[in-house]
Amino acid sequence: MRKLLTLISTAAILTTPAFAQARGFDSDFSQAITGPFKLEVIVSDDLAHRANNLPKKLSDRGTSSRLNSAYASNGKYGDRAIKDLLEEMHEEITGDFSKRGLVLSESAPTLLRITIVKAKPNRPTFNQLGEDPSLSFKSYGIGGAEVSAEFITAGGDVVGTAEYDYYSSFGDRPHLSASGVWTDADRAMSRFSKKLSKKLAKMNQDAS
User: Fold this and answer.
1) How many helices (H) and strands (E) does the chain have?
2) 3-class SS at 6?
3) Please, which residues have CB within 8 angstroms of residue 16's CB and are 6 or more apart in sequence?
4) Cα separation, 185 vs 53, whole angstroms
5) What is the pTM of this model?
6) Nearest CA to 81 among 122, 113, 22?
C-alpha cells in the first residue's frame, strides 16, 4: 500500500548488484502545465514493501551467500528510513519550486504526484543494522534512486509525466567511503527536483 508523506566493508560491495547508470531526465507532456500544483509525495508499493521485508522479486535481491542479510538483499530498510526519503523529496521539491516561482497549494486543481520508485542506501539503515549484527556503519556500497512524477487533472487525466534515475558505480569507491546512508538517493532526488522545476518554469515562461 502506498505511503503518503502525511504522515560495507569491501565484502559488502562485492555482494551488491550492479545498477544501470542514470538514463537522464525524461518527460512527456500532452499540454503545457503552468500550475499551481497540489503536491503529493509517495513511495511505490515495492519500496513500501521493502520497509519491513526483503524484495518480492528474487532478481531484486543481492548475490550475498547470507540470504537473510537485509543490506545485501536490498530490503528491510525500516519505516524511519522510508520516512526520511519522503521528507527529503518533499523538501527538495518545495525548495526548488519556490526558487523558480512555481506555486504549490493544497487547493490546486492539478495534482503533482511524486513517486520514489526505488531507492538503495549507500550504508545500512538503522533497521538493517539491527537485522544483521555483522554489519556496521562502515559498511558501504553503491546507492541511488529512481523517481517519477505524474500531473493529474481534477478529472483524473494524466497530462504529464517525468522520470529520472541515478546510481553510483563501483568506480566511485573514494566517494562512497565518505557517504551517508542515503547520499546517492538524495543526489538522485535533488537532480530530479531541479530538472523538473526547470522544465515547468520554462513552460510558465513560454505561456506568458
Assistant:
1) 6, 5
2) coil
3) 8, 62, 72, 141, 142
4) 19
5) 0.84
6) 122
| Measured distance CA(156)–CA(110) in Å, rounded | 9
Query: Side chain identity at 87, as an amino acid letter?
Result: E
| Residue length of the chain | 208
Match 538524495 to its residue by C-alpha cell.
186
3-state SS, 32-96, equals: CCCCCEEEEEEECHHHHHHCCCCCCCHHHCCCCCCCCCCCCCCCCCCHHHHHHHHHHHHHHHHHH
119-172: per-residue pLDDT in tens? Answer: 999 999 999 999 888 777 777 888 899 999 999 999 999 999 999 999 887 665
> Which three three-digit cell numbers place residue 102?
512555481
Number of C-beta neighbours around residue 52 at 10 A: 14
**Under a CB-based contact definition with an 8 Å cutoff, are residues 3 and 86 in contact?**
yes
